[in-house]
Amino acid sequence: MSNAAPPAPEKPFVAQHSVPAGVVATRWWWVRHAPVRNDGGNIYGQKDMDCDTSDRVVFDAVGKVLPRNAAWFASNLKRTHQTASAIWAAGFPQPEEMRHEPDLAEQHLGDWQGLNRAAFFASRPVAVGSYWFAPIDEPSPNGESFMDLYNRVRRAIDRINASHAGQDVIAVAHGGTIKAAIGLALGDQPERGLAFTIDNCSITRLDHLASDGQAGWRIPMVNQQPWIADAAHAAMHQPAGPELATPTKLA
Fold this sequence. Notes:
By secondary structure, this protein is of the alpha/beta class. Helix content is 24%, strand content 17%. Helix 1 packs across helix 2 and helix 4 packs across helix 5.
């Protein structure tokens, strides 16, 4: 008979970062929704599209990084709800409540929604500095600009920071939403957030620190993909916005 001790129960990974005494840290864990497969290569923006949640290994890995006892939020679009449900189905304890925040939705791309993505960018002037569908202050016809998105995401973050100060917040959202949050964390520089790639199902951690009337942000990790040790899951990678298809990216 073996005297070996039974294996210790698996515990979720939590990134540890010291917080000075007197500082309130509200830790944001952003998760981008799973990939949309049925877009036909078209821009979808705020179109309410389904996403692919078939790869349980991905959602199991994501769940091992996220903290327990967090407040859960998602946008009003069903692909974020489906992604959260896939994380819970993979074994993460389902919270009692997940709040739906329309201000966390993707940018409304107006008349550009439904246009072929490759043809759209072929018809546009090259604007490497924007890393997005258009310069940040250019609204889509009958839709929003990235600044419109940024301002409403900022409002939601400010509101949730006030109501959940000192807690962990898990927000299942969109590529543009998370880029906006990064721009805010970089000192209110929305255009800088657009330089970051945010892959499907990836985790971005942003800590809001507040003390004595002062506040700022710390960025522990961006675009973390805990499943990538297994090359079999490269198919989960899909453009985070305006990128075009390559042999390893799906349009």
